[in-house]
Amino acid sequence: MSLHKKAAASIVALATAFSLTACGGGDDSDVIKVGTTDQGQKQWQVFTEEAKAEGLNVELVPFGDYSLPNRALEEGEIDVNNFQHLMFLADFNVNSGTDLTPIGATEIIPLALFYKDHDNIKDVEDAKEVAIPNDPTNQGRALHMLAENHLVVLKDDSILSPTPADVDEAKSKIKVTPVDAAQTVTAYQDGKPAVINNSFLDRGNIDPTSAIAQDDPQSPSAEPFINAFVTKADRKDDPDLKKLVDVWHSQKVQDALREQSKGTSVEVKKNGPELEKILDNVEARIKESK
């Protein structure tokens, strides 16, 4: 066989092998990878089942903390994530120079204060110290919530994401101690009052209804804390990704979410453009504050 014919035969063989591979069981081009930090919760199991019934092949990709799912999305390791509110997303976009985009709302989960074996806010005052998440957006939300419940006084309550430096310690009833969001559960288990994100309550076997105080999800000021499905800007109109939002709002998923959150989650139905408007406003305020 001539060199030319050998080369041609090799090309045909390679093409045939590629074709067989593409047609085989190893093809996962139709898999939608969804990043989340609370994949063990009941609503996710129901969600994947309902998505399958709608012809969507969903693979949940778990992450141990909040710093990873957006990076994974930006780097193309996942297709979409659902773990964050718009304030968190805005802070990430502004500080990372990215344009990750919300495509549909899910719910608002109140941010709450917990104190093991206590049910009175006066007990928190007596404890003198509260652990709060140290990521910028949840830290700011926690401080606003503590201020609304008269445990701390902010020097300027118009600041979008205050830090402990913005707390007037002389006028406040307690001191705040920022820790990693996952460590707020440890603080709680060690007998300290703590503001704990809903995603971590299961890890500490904490009843969401045992909160001593929380923010108001019905307030207009709560809009930045709407949770959402988020993807890269160039995929915001992907029909399969949009269908994930519809699946999330199906009756079975919502029933599972209400059971999981013990009725504390508040369903929100806002589309991508509505969420982008809120996000743009929050991002602009973050940039102004720098």
Automatic annotation (TrEMBL):
Gene3D superfamilies: Periplasmic binding protein-like II. It comes from the Bacteria. It is a lipid-anchor. It is found in: Membrane. Keywords: Lipoprotein, Membrane, Palmitate, Signal. PROSITE patterns: PROKAR_LIPOPROTEIN. InterPro entries: Lipoprotein_NlpA. Its main location: membrane. GO terms for cellular component: membrane. The keyword Acetylation does not apply. PANTHER family: D-METHIONINE-BINDING LIPOPROTEIN METQ, LIPOPROTEIN. Belongs to the NlpA lipoprotein family. This is Methionine ABC transporter substrate-binding protein.
